[in-house]
Amino acid sequence: MVVVAAAGGTGTVGRNIAEALIAQANHEVIIQSRTANPLKAKEIGVRAIGTDYKEVSATRKILEDNNVHTVISALIRMPGTAGPFGTESHPSRRRL
Ligand SMILES: NC(=O)c1ccc[n+]([C@@H]2O[C@H](COP(=O)([O-])OP(=O)(O)OC[C@H]3O[C@@H](n4cnc5c(N)ncnc54)[C@H](OP(=O)(O)O)[C@@H]3O)[C@@H](O)[C@H]2O)c1
Fold first, then answer.
1. Residue 66 CA, ligand 1 centroid: distance in Å
2. What pLDDT sits at residue 23?
3. Residues 17/9, Cβ–Cβ less than 8 Å
């Protein structure tokens, strides 16, 4: 059974994705959150792993340590706050 991580799995979209995967019972599902959130994790029924997405090496290690095969990102960036890449306007996200 491969491990699938839902980044932003505490949110509306991420939680739906995590729950759909759990219902399929074909994958081991974990959620990634900026803060390990035991209550949410218990509610959803999976492990929640605290992840600081700005720390690339640490994030990679978390994925490796948990044997994650696939990450599904359902992160959001709120206006006026830094996004998951730590910048207000990441170059890859600029619209032409
Ligand atoms: N909701 C919809 O109907 C809908 C429809 C179409 C597309 N979308 C897109 O789907 C994505 C998720 O939407 P959503 O409604 O599920 O959002 P949401 O409920 O706000 O959840 C997104 C998750 O992202 C994490 N997050 C928030 N701010 C962050 C930041 N600055 N850096 C890193 N992580 C952050 C939070 O998790 P933690 O606090 O646990 O880290 C949060 O639970 C967005 O890109 C949105 O545009 C949503």
1. 23
2. 95
3. yes
* Residue appearing with tokens 């998951």: 84
Asked whether 27 lines ligand 1 (CB < 6 A), one says no
Ligand 1 neighbourhood includes 85 CB (under 6 angstroms): no
Ligand 1 close to Cβ of residue 34 (< 6 A): yes
Question: What is the reported pTM?
Answer: 0.86
CATH 3.10.20.30 holds for 3-77: no
What average pLDDT does this structure show over 12-38? 93
* 83 Cβ below 6 A of ligand 1: yes
Q: How many CB atoms lie within 10 A of CB 69?
A: 13
Token pair recorded at residue 50: 């605290």
Q: Where do the structural domains in the chain lie, given as residue ranges?
A: 3-77
Res 22 pLDDT > 60 = yes
